[in-house]
Amino acid sequence: MYSAKVISLQLKEVERKNSPCFSTGPVGEDLYHWESIITEPKGSPYENGVFKVDIHFPLDYPFAPPRVMFKTKMYHPNVNTYGNIFLKIIYVEDRAAFETIALAWTVEHAGGA
């Protein structure tokens, strides 16, 4: 299956890069279901937060996008209350208020401080 080959190649690339900001990979032996752990950079309202992300690749990947969902609750204009990510960018009108709320949610739900 073409999608399995593409996903396997992408997994090898992620493993090769070994980023300090995230880890990701298949859940058990299921190549089409991944879990990621993302740690956010200093200076953002998500600083020190640890966010879990669930990724499901469709069988026709890469011709159809993966379904990506935050399992850790977070406050972000592109993530709804269920953790679903939207591609449409919603511009924040009050940046200071956004950062205050995002920081509070990070502390409460993702262990940030």
- Based on Cα principal axes, name the global outline: globular
Give me the CATH fold name. Answer: Ubiquitin Conjugating Enzyme
Number of helices: 2
The termini sit apart by 44 Å
Strand element count: 4
**Class of secondary structure makeup:** alpha+beta
Poorly predicted runs = none
In N-to-C order, the SSE pattern is: HEEEEH
Question: Taking Cα atoms only, what radius of gyration do you get, to the nearest Å?
Answer: 16 Å
CATH superfamily: Ubiquitin Conjugating Enzyme
Biggest sheet layout: 4 strands, antiparallel
Mean pLDDT over all positions: 89
Q: Please give the share of residues in helix.
A: 25-40%
How is the largest sheet built, in terms of strand order? Answer: 1-2-3-4
CATH structural architecture: Roll
Provide the β-strand percentage band.
15-25%
Number of domains: 1
Short précis:
The chain has a single domain, classed as Ubiquitin Conjugating Enzyme.
Features:
Ubiquitin Conjugating Enzyme, single chain, globular, alpha+beta
Report what the structure shows.
There is one protein chain. The chain is of the alpha+beta class. The chain has a single domain (2-108), classed as Ubiquitin Conjugating Enzyme. The chain has helices spanning 2-17, 95-110; strands at residues 22-27, 30-39, 50-56, 67-70. It has a four-stranded antiparallel β-sheet with strand order 1-2-3-4, covered by helices on one side. Strand 1 and strand 2 (30-39) form a beta hairpin. The termini are far apart. The mean pLDDT is 89. It holds the Pfam family UQ_con. This is UBC core domain-containing protein. Residues 2-113 form the UBC core domain. InterPro entries: UBC, UBQ-conjugating_enzyme/RWD.
